[in-house]
Amino acid sequence: EKNPTLPLDHILRVEAGQNTTNFLRTRDKKTSVEQMSFSVVTSDRSLDLIASSIPAQKVWVKALRLMMHNSKDEAAGDSLQGYLNKIWNRADEDRSGSLTHEEVCKILESLNITLSKAKAKDVMKTYDTDGNNMLDKEEFLAMMDIMLSERKEMATIMGGKTEWNAGDLAAFLREQGGGAPVTEDFAMSEIRRLSEDPNTTNLTVKTLGLLLDEAKNAVYNPVKLLEGAGGDLAKYMAHPLTDYYINSSHNTYLTGDQLQGDSTVEAYTAALQRGARCVELDCWDGAPGVPEGNDGSEPIITHGHTLCTKILFRDVIRTIKNTAFAPPANNPYPVILSIEMHCTLKFQQKMFRIVDGELGEMLYRLPDDADATMEDLPSPEELKHKILLKGKRVHKPDEPDDDDDDEEEVESTPRAGNTSQRGLQPAMSFTGKSKKKEGHDIDPDWSSLISLAAVKANLEKTGKPFEMSSFAEGKTKKICETQNGQFIRYNMRQLSRIYPFGGRIDSSNLDPCPAWGAGAQLVALNFQTDDTPMRVNRGMFLQNAGFGYVLKPPPLLAKGQPTPPMKLTVLVYSCQRLPKLGNARDVVDPYVKVEVLGAGKDKATKQTSMVQDNGFNPAFNDGKGEALEFDILMPDAAHVCISVWDQDVGSDDFIGVHSVPLLNIRPGIRHVPLDDAHEARLHMAGVLCKFTIKELTPAEAKMIRPVDSIRNLVAAPAPKQKAAVDRSLGFSPDAPPGASSTILDSPAELEGGAEF
Questions:
Q1: 542-567 pLDDT per residue, tens
Q2: For the domain with range 227-557, which CATH number is right: 1.10.1040.10, 3.20.20.190, 1.20.1290.10, 3.40.50.970?
Q3: What sequence ranges are listed for the domain C2 (predicted)?
Q4: Which of 179, 575, 609, 629 is the most exposed place for a label (fewest CB within 10 A)?
Q5: Residue 150: which of 207, 206, 203 has the closest Cα?
Q6: Distance CA 193, CA 331 (A)
Q7: Which CATH code fits 8-76?
Q8: How far is CA 751 from CA 460, 488, 674, 727, in A?
Q9: Which of 10, 239, 250, 342 is catalytic?
Q10: Does residue 422 contact residue 309 with C-beta atoms inside 8 Å?
Q11: What is the pLDDT of residue 3?
């Protein structure tokens, strides 16, 4: 590989034994070899190793887990001194205790600081106090101290001053806190804490920068990140499952694209450890040698009619059993297994025996009288450490038809290649020109394990609490455009799962925000793809300590009014300490992109200008900041994704990102931390922005609210009511096309009650 190192913060779990796909395919059945084996699992792969002995394996596993733990603690409490010590240790490669001119140039370049060799020599002369043409650690840290103080945006923030006294800082902190009381004594204690000098009385540019870059000044409301979103966790988790957004994975087994990607059991480990509480299993009849080691009696998991590899259903169930609630995530809340059934009765019987035997008491089973007496689904609190199976049951006369779960539009096209891993069914290409639907009878024993019955949706009818439906991306879009009010009410009483269009063969993701805005609980995303929808999903489920369950906003629970339309202004001041990209030698040319994603018309992207050759402390508009403004119609469903990019020839390179629900943004001058494509926090890097959120006036709201969006907020009326509803929206049934319409000031003005 180009980069043979594996950062500790990219590791999700260290597995003892032979539990990954590579080991399972080539398993050595000798007990001693299995006990010497271990795997390092990341979000997209596993490193599978065999130690020299059983004691050596135990040392490796324990040491790696301890290093992971310490790395997370270090990242959480990353200090400037720790950051500078790391830089020094990286620069002083020969451990001589001093840096040559070449070493200084090399480390500055690695920090994304552009200096010519001549300028670097001048800098060295300034700080080379003993005149030996080298910098020792003290001299190097003095140089870095000055560089950290060179922040153009501070002149704007400090009103032209170079220092603040305690009164200045107290006034600033009161404004940051929305008027909350801050004493000068507290401000003085902060000045001395940051400067590490018990006698200092003034705040410098450098120390104000440290204050603003601290995690406690981050943009994401810290209360929302706590267990129970800052309240009692048990009470927060005491609502029926239908009241929550649930972190959900699509085709969880895949690590690549949808046509020829690899299927692995560690993909389930990665998704579950990253917070997914719903994972998908596409189940098919097995065949001898498919995958290797299958005697023909074992059901398998794969993406049917493609060249994707196969894995054993049994191995997946064991992996889920071992990792769903395990460390380091230690997430105790229930996991839903979304079963896409393609197996014949014989293999369903085998699946029943595997699940019943492996999961046992972990499996949640419906009460015998659920059909007659169940009023609501249990809560996440009641279902701790439980696994629920969602799938088709034996059809009962009073139940709706079976669900069209993951029925994809496909066109049959033969494909070459048929190995034991990538064969079995004729391959299909996803072109959206015809439909292929497969159905099987359901085995009664298997049916008895299903606690969430997959049925065809009927928005007009109240179903049983344990009945849920899946909606394809295209169908969801149409419903949100034409029956949004009905869909919202449906999602107040039933679970809905939304899955991507089958044509997304590159494993790209759908925008989850419109479905969330309609109250759909489970929007299944391809976790292996780091794109904007997946980043928004991460931002959503940072809430409630990352447990994968987030209460829907009050309007979607019929417990409050929608938040009025808002204007968001993001004044982007600067970036700090951006990393180099891979092994690139060039200093980055950064710009900041801000995307708003939401329901209806709430979708916009704006970006700053580019700052050339500066990734250490790039300031926009010479430190005055660049303002990006967004008018947002439905704030309850809006998310803000802030990313940093390196402008390059051809295509720009992603550096880092942070996503936050609009209503979780803290106004004021805030630090935006950045995560890389592996969801690891970029230490000491970030963006400094001022966030302003204000309610739009009725006149401003009229200018941005399309009539169609208002119509979508109302449940589809019965035919005889249509004319009355049209009139309430300002439409005239007899008006010619293109005639003007009255636009209401607020959805609450709609007769008969508005829907969020």
A1: 999 999 999 999 999 999 899 999 99
A2: 3.20.20.190
A3: 549-676
A4: 179
A5: 206
A6: 36
A7: 2.30.29.30
A8: 20, 17, 45, 10
A9: 250
A10: yes
A11: 57
